[in-house]
Amino acid sequence: MTHQYYRGIALVIVLWATALLTGIATTYALMMRTEGESSSSFARRVEALALAEAGIHRAIYNLLEAPDEESTWAVNGTPLQIELDGGNVDVRIFAEAGRIDLNRAPIALLTGLAEVAGASDPKAVGAAIVDWRDKDSKVTEAGAEDADYAAAGRPYGAADRPFYSTSELHQLIGVTRPVAAAMQRHSTIFNRSSKVDVTTASSAVLKALPSVDVEQVEQFLRTRAIQLLGPAAASFLRIGTRTFQHRGFFTIEARGITHAGTSATAGVLILLTRSPREPYAVMSATQDFAW
Predict the structure, then answer these.
(1) What are the contacts of 76-83 at 24+ separation with CB within 8 A?
(2) Which residues contact 109 (CB under 8 A, 6 or more apart)?
(3) What are the distances in angstroms from CA 46 to CA 189, 251, 289?
(4) Which 8-state DSSP code applies to residue 161?
(5) Gap between the terminal Cα atoms of the chain
(6) At 238, phi and psi to the nearest 5?
(7) What is the DSSP code (8-state) at residue 178?
């Protein structure tokens, strides 16, 4: 074979090697770019999350240290925006006392909640909640115990214990996914009372109260909005209601938004004790939920 032949083979090898190295370099550059963008995105999210957590701490501070009622932030879920270095924070506080306790509420209030949530048979849903939480196997009228779950093809029966979470609503007979989700927004296991606080309850919770019509609720909400709570609350102080005490369980949700537009959400459930040694305790925390 001639030298020209070997030189041709060498040229082909060099060209292939050059193409291979170019491909490797290009891939590496793309990987570095992607990793850089990922790192930048992570840094922006961390910044937004830090804003959200700052909003939560501001809310806790306000609950503990507000000098008077006028300075206290609303605890009925009304959004409040805070401006901080680096961006803005949307904060909302929910007093769990303003939600319906699945473990303590009377069946009439549970039935009202199911009706507001859009259940096709609110009475059956209210009774199913009672049968889920009570210790016996006796079926409440229109309710459901183990045999009913078995007949419906459910591999479990009524729990016969208190609710551990509002998410258990999804397991009840007669409760569709949309109805369960709607009920979760207005229910709790941390009210620790059979009644609801009318000064912090949502419109849906107020409409769930027995013998209260929509017109009364709307009038009450207008009155509550301008803080004329004394006479207005008095008209609601019937079975199933109570007025607010600034202690107990609160859910605080915050959404941090950076100046660049990146957002992140964070939330906590706290127990406000006002004890000098431990004024509050964080019961649970969550991130990245829908706002």
Answers:
(1) 76/199, 76/200, 76/201, 76/202, 77/202, 82/55, 82/58
(2) 100, 194, 196, 208, 209, 210, 240
(3) 31, 22, 15
(4) S
(5) 76
(6) -120, -170
(7) H
Q: 129: closest CA among 161, 96, 177, 176?
A: 161
How many residues belong to the chain? Answer: 291
Residue 243: pLDDT band (50, 70, 90) is very low
Long-range contacts of 41-45 (CB under 8 A, 24+ apart): 41/262, 44/258, 44/260, 44/262, 45/262, 45/264
> Cβ of 157: how many Cβ atoms within 10 Å?
16
CA distance to 4, 38, 165, 238, 287, per residue, from 257 (Å):
68, 18, 30, 42, 14
Query: Given CA atoms 62, 68, 71, 75 in this order, what sign does their dihedral have?
Result: positive
Q: For residue range 253-287, what is the model confidence (pLDDT) as tens digits?
A: 999 999 999 999 999 999 998 788 899 999 999 99
The label of the residue with tokens 């209260």 reads 212
Please report where in the chains the tokens 């290009």 appear, as a residue: 26
Nearest to 93 by CA among 250, 290, 219: 250
Give, as one character, the DSSP assignment of residue 138. P
Closest CA to 75 of 229, 211, 259, 239: 229
- What is the per-residue pLDDT across 17-61, written as a single tens digit (0 to 9) for each? 777 878 787 777 777 776 665 667 888 899 999 999 999 999 999
Q: Characterize the bridge pairing of strands 248-258 and 263-272.
A: antiparallel
What's the predicted TM-score (pTM) here? 0.77
Place of tokens 């369980």: 249
- Residue 140 gets which letter from DSSP? P
